[in-house]
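Recall that a protein's primary structure is simply its ordered list of amino acids. Everything else, from secondary elements to tertiary packing, is in principle encoded there. The following example makes that idea concrete.
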Amino acid sequence: MTTHFPDDDSIIPEWDGLPLVSTDHALEKMMELSMRLYDVAILLEYAEPCGDKRKKGTYELCDKWKGKDIKIVFTKKYSGWVDNIAWIIITIIEKR
């Protein structure tokens, strides 16, 4: 998997060849953790599978962010925001 930061005027980072788009819920969680979408792209690059079961087509990866264990839950589907298939960040969970 590779993280791509576009050279053009795009403000949307990519991971594994697709743009990253957050849901409103994920954006709220990112703000609580002082995290940007670019930070999520970097975390996805190095994160490991969490091992929890999710419905088919929903993925999760775990990593550390500022000393906290976090879980990133995402799916791949069409996004009107980028008018294409994208990785949709569903939520970011701070594991306790």
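The chain is about 20% helix and 45% strand. The chain has a mean pLDDT of 89.
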